[in-house]
Amino acid sequence: MENSIGQRIKELRTHYNLSVKEFAGKCGLSHVAIFHLENGRTLKPHRSSLQRMATIFGTTADWLLFAKNEMLPNGNKEIYSDEVEENSFWKEEAYLEIKSKNLMLEKEVERLWQMLSHFTTGSKPNFERMLDAS
To answer: Which CATH architecture has domain 5-81?
Structure first.
């Protein structure tokens, strides 16, 4: 029988003695997503999902994808004490996403203020500056 990514994910999950729901919760995925991976219904998981699994459970994306090297190159990982670290990963990712959107909004607000000042003061707006900011 072929050794698939789903079988390796199941091997990792059973190694840590976790149910599908527990494993999925630690990875930030739904239990249905893990079930589909393990049973071959999903053949190409998202790269960030694989990286999270590898980081949380102490393996590598290469092992998950291609069975290269050992399953746990640095030995067992204490997954129960790392829950604070998992949450900080999500918080950092969310923070960076919000920060990039905030910068785009600030540029747009500045452009709108320039247009508004044109209509209220009668001065000619600097359209080159507005285009450069976009």
So the answer is: Orthogonal Bundle (1.10)
